């Protein structure tokens, strides 16, 4: 079979009308590039005030007193907020079920849990005034003992996370008897979420119980609900607006203390308040991926059949709430293994609560497992692809369910062929180009397909154009575009005539743009709604007394913006609406589990992660897969590593937009390069301060670090996974990249680096 590069199928009319699945260019692209796109804090409101945070400069302890006198006397200053004068809110559980203790909650710290915590905020008439006054606030503190990382012995053993404990067979006995055993410990550092649009918001109370938030959000319904409940006002009284978002990667799905601070300031001052998180503050206003340490034991036969896996993982968390980076999540479902155990702990240290960061759990889990598999291949003198093929499971080992689809064999074949893997000389250090040692490594990645519901409004307007609206969001991944494609196909109109409106809680409900599930869920909802609109148009054409098509046929077709009889006699949609005296044909439909619900109840459903759907409803195990083949060049004298070639074959089911999916895969791979070679959050052990709190010291991959990347799709439409056959895309391709790079570095140098990022020191 011949597979196609993902990004070769351009969107044009040559596809017999089917526009979903082609590479239509980004709907929002021109607006973003021209600067026409208005981001959250660029909204202008009359009477806007500016809020600047005052953060703790110690890593642990207690606030004794906030002295605001001097700041309050400065020009333009309207208020200095702190725990002593802030509003008390109703405590809300976060995404992970952490609920602040006590009857009330206030976003300003009394107890200091980490360096950079929100202690006070200054509100003034200009940004400059607020900044100057923030520097004049003095905070008297009592120092506590700082435990800055889980490497500090004082951090202790932490807490066992029961949900990550999985067992089958007898791994201890199997490991004791296994002819070949690999045991190693892998570490990943703290990684910070640094989307190009830093966090920030404008909070505006129109009156005492109506709050509007102009804030980037990966989950409008979830975040609006949090605000409503925290301020004890009805859900519908909170409006969130964010038509454009400059990336989020997991960091924009939850309400953070700074957002509550701005909302409190606006409520007290009865004016809109803007708060922009500075780039250094993005390292403490919310958490990124926590540091992890994982010990893996693999036992195998001499011909490479896995007998046992034992996986012990631990991650850093905060002292005041828990975040689990689920390091065992990939290990149990990747290979056919009869004896298995995974365990996990989280160790509280003085850090901001870590949070989701592209492929949480999956990514570090994949790094450890896929590096360990390479170590096993070396020990067995076996090709790493061959080792994986020998352990390819026919069904999900963890749940016993059959795969909806798992095209990993196809991914190995297509990736290896495009890369030229058969030309690899397995001998370490045997491939070179002058001073450069060349290494070829591979690894696999996976991501689950999560369930949920969506809702959309689809409207055919009097002029024959179509409008789709939903409170779903587009932070760059392509939601605008794929929803326009979906409606265009269902209604038979050119994609240019579909307008999509997103990012406003006034529109229909939507699930979180997280867990790589928004595309499948929203494409499903828009398809369902648009098909219902199509039925209504056909009904109108066939039976409305004023329809020019009445009595002309027993069925009508929609295509090219027209509605016509099978014989081809037809009119435009605009003409149909005009003749039948309609302004529009508009419907709203959802894909929640069937039940009678009020609009309020419906919205509540979208504020929960799975919106009433359950994984147990599925008889199949649903995952996306990918196989990475990567070349590195290591300078023999300097120890510098360059990634020089990447080929990734993906199985993400049906792709809705080849150009955008290609971009998603490349984005994940680029972040994987950063993870392998660059990204590392460094803290000062004396006070828990983040030393790398800027984009110069916290290095992410830039153009110069990124080679040509080829992505190949081997997926097939998977209608057991999702209604329109797609699987997870957004986070898939980051998983496994760091392992493939580390494996390639081993192939080049014979040095096994088990702790990321791989540095020059590791290789000299
Ligand atoms: N897509 C497709 N075919 C499919 C599924 C998806 O063509 N079968 C394409 C579409 O263009 C779709 C995109 O991939 O818009 C992502 O779809 P999906 O996998 O459903 O992911 P979400 O829409 O839920 O987006 C969130 C996901 C996550 S969880 C992170 S983290 C991440 C990611 O997307 N953050 C991103 N990709 C990102 N891309 C950008 N530019 N910015 C971020 O912050
Ligand atoms: Mo993505 S980390 O699930 O927002």
Automatic annotation (TrEMBL):
Pfam families: Ald_Xan_dh_C, MoCoBD_1, MoCoBD_2. It comes from the Bacteria. It is an enzyme of class 1 (oxidoreductase). One of its GO terms (molecular function) is xanthine dehydrogenase activity. Keywords: Molybdenum, Oxidoreductase. Residues 34-145 form the Aldehyde oxidase/xanthine dehydrogenase a/b hammerhead domain. Its EC number is 1.17.1.4. This is Xanthine dehydrogenase YagR molybdenum-binding subunit.
């Amino acid at each position: 079979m011949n597979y196609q590069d993902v990004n070769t199928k351009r969107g044009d009319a040559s596809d017999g009308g089917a526009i979903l699945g082609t590479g239509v260019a980004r709907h929002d692209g021109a607006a973003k590039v021209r600067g026409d796109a208005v981001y959250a804090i660029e909204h202008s409101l009359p009477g806007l005030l500016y809020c600047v945070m005052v953060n703790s400069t110690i890593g642990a302890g207690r606030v004794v007193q906030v002295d605001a006198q001097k700041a309050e006397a400065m020009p333009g200053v309207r208020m200095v907020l702190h725990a002593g004068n802030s509003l008390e809110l109703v405590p809300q559980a976060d995404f992970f079920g952490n609920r602040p203790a006590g009857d009330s909650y206030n976003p300003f710290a009394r107890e200091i849990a980490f360096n950079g915590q929100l202690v006070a905020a200054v509100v003034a008439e200009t940004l400059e005034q607020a900044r100057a006054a923030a520097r004049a606030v003095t905070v008297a503190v009592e120092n506590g003992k700082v435990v800055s990382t889980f490497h500090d012995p004082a951090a202790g053993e932490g807490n066992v996370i029961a949900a990550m404990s999985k067992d089958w067979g007898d791994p201890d006995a199997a490991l004791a008897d296994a002819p070949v055993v690999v045991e190693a410990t892998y570490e990943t550092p703290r990684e910070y979420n640094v989307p190009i649009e830093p966090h920030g918001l404008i909070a505006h109370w129109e009156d005492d119980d109506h709050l509007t938030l102009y804030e980037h959000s990966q989950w409008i319904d979830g975040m609006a609900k949090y605000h409503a409940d925290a301020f004890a006002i009805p859900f519908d009284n909170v409006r969130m607006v964010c038509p454009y978002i400059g990336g989020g990667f997991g960091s924009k799905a939850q309400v953070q203390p700074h957002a509550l601070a701005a909302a409190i300031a606006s409520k007290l001052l009865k004016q809109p308040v803007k708060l922009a998180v500075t780039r250094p503050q993005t390292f403490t206003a919310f958490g990124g991926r926590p540091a992890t340490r994982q010990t893996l034991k693999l036992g195998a036969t001499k011909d490479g059949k896995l007998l046992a896996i034992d996986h012990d993982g631990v991650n850093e968390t905060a002292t005041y709430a828990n975040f689990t980076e689920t390091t065992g999540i990939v290990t149990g479902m990747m290979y056919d293994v009869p004896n298995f155990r995974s365990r996990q702990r989280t160790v509280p240290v003085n850090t901001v609560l870590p949070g989701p960061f592209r492929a949480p759990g999956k990514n570090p889990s994949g790094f450890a497992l896929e590096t360990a598999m390479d170590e096993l291949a070396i020990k067995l003198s076996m090709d790493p692809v061959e080792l994986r093929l020998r352990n390819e499971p026919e069904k999900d080992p963890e749940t016993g369910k059959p795969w909806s689809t798992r095209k990993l064999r196809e991914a190995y074949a297509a990736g290896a062929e495009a890369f030229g893997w058969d030309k690899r000389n397995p001998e370490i250090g045997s491939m070179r180009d002058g001073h450069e040692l060349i290494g070829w490594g591979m690894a696999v990645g996976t991501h689950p397909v999560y369930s949920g519901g969506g809702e959309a409004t689809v409207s055919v307007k009097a002029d024959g154009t179509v409008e789709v609206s939903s409170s779903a969001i587009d932070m760059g991944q392509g939601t605008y575009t794929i929803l326009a494609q979906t409606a265009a196909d269902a209604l038979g109109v050119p994609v240019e005539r579909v307008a999509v409106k997103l990012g406003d809680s006034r529109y229909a409900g939507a699930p979180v743009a997280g867990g790589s599930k928004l595309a499948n869920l929203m494409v499903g909802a828009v398809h369902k709604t648009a098909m219902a609109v199509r039925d209504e148009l056909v009904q109108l054409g066939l039976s409305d007394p004023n329809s020019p098509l009445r009595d002309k046929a027993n069925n009508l077709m929609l295509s090219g913006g027209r509605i016509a009889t099978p014989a081809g006699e037809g009119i435009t949609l605009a003409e149909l609406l005009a003749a039948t005296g309609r302004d529009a044909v508009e419907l709203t439909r959802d894909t929640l589990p069937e039940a009678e619900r009020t609009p309020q109840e419906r919205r509540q459903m979208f504020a929960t992660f799975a919106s009433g759907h359950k994984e147990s409803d599925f008889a199949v195990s649903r995952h996306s897969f990918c196989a990475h083949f990567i070349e590195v060049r290591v300078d023999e004298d300097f120890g510098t590593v360059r990634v020089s070639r990447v080929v990734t074959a993906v199985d993400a089911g049906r792709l809705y937009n080849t150009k955008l999916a290609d971009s998603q895969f490349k984005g994940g791979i680029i972040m994987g390069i950063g993870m392998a070679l660059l990204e590392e959050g460094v803290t000062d052990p004396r006070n828990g301060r983040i030393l790398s709190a800027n984009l110069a010291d916290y290095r992410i991959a830039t153009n110069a670090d990124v080679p040509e990347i080829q992505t190949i799709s081997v997926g097939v439409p998977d209608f057991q996974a999702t209604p329109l056959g797609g699987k997870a895309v957004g986070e898939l391709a980051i998983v496994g990249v760091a392992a493939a790079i580390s494996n390639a570095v081993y192939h080049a140098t014979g040095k096994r680096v088990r702790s990321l990022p791989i540095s020059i020191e590791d290789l000299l």
